[in-house]
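dumping these here so i dont lose them again. two proteins, back to back, each one seq then structure tokens. dont judge the mess
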Amino acid sequence: MSNPQFSERIIFVTFDQLSRSHGALATAVPGQDQIVFIESHDMLTARTWHAQRLFFLLSCCEHLKSELDAGGFQVTTIHASSMRSGLEKLRAQHPDLPIVSTSPSSRSLRQVLNSLGVELLPNNNFLTTPEQFTSWASGYKSLTMEYFYRWQRKRLNILMDHDQPVGGQWNLDHDNRLPPPRPKKGQAPHLWPEPLRFESDQIDDQVRDRLSEFHTWGEPPNGTWATTRTGALAQLAHFTENSLTNFGPFEDAMPTDTWTVNHSLLSPYLNVGLLHPGEVVQAAIDKYEQGGIPLSSIEGFV
């Protein structure tokens, strides 16, 4: 652990808060804040991970550490048996330094952080705060996704024409349930968009070598998933350019000749904070407003 005299505050970062521009890291100042990550043995071994998922989490985290280090931050990784023990070790080694973190999505981790006196900053990696959701939900005896969806559309002014949905209908599910195309005899098979492939860098290679330490299942990393924000933005652009047009009609289709169909493949990046839902929605809306995107596709996506 580095000497605390060079730090005024510690920022604890979890694996799903890897955004430099949101949450606690958005407030970080080089030379003042020490950035701490905890690699928990329990988290990495309590379940059998898919090799690509574990690779993705670890490599995204290592890329952020490298970026922060290059930006002049003091970056520390604590290896511990559990997240709690790692945080207790951190508190014991820095009893006089304030520790802050973005409020985690995990309730159990939030309880641990509260018990150790960690200051929790609002988690703005979502479009809706817990307080906003609670306020909305208090007006209903039972919660229905459709009503929440309409409230969000109105509140965020997404695909709205004043107080009505663009096109006059809230959802176009009836247009978005086509089966996979079945070419007639003599016709060429339907061509689905080719997914992006991402080249490995030195950090990726080092993380890939670590996978042998863990019990995993599934195909090893093969370039399907980016591990940086730059790569995540490239995937977003690839989706809006190549797949958004036909996203809607086949969003529920399960063809046998592709696993990607017209899907965005953006969920992992949203889950760890490399993309913000607001920028994803805006990128799709911007493409729609340029023309050529059916309303059923843009509505089905957002």
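---- next one ----
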Amino acid sequence: MGWGSHFYTPPHCPSPSGFVKLKQELERRFPGALDVSGQGTPEVTGWFEVTVGGHLVHSKKNGDGFVDSDPKLLKIVAAIESCLA
């Protein structure tokens, strides 16, 4: 599990399960290949960011919203596949 993906969400996020659901889906798609972690942002609200291999690939703050559709998920999956290749 040397590959890492990090998610930044506020601790009082209206849908903290969004992180959990995304984590579970990515671990289902890439069993044993990921090191997924979450980090709260207590000083800032409204963040939900996904970093893959050190690169920001999804940002609610920058207009991507939550990962709530297949195109958003597939963008993250493609970034992971690229890192694992």
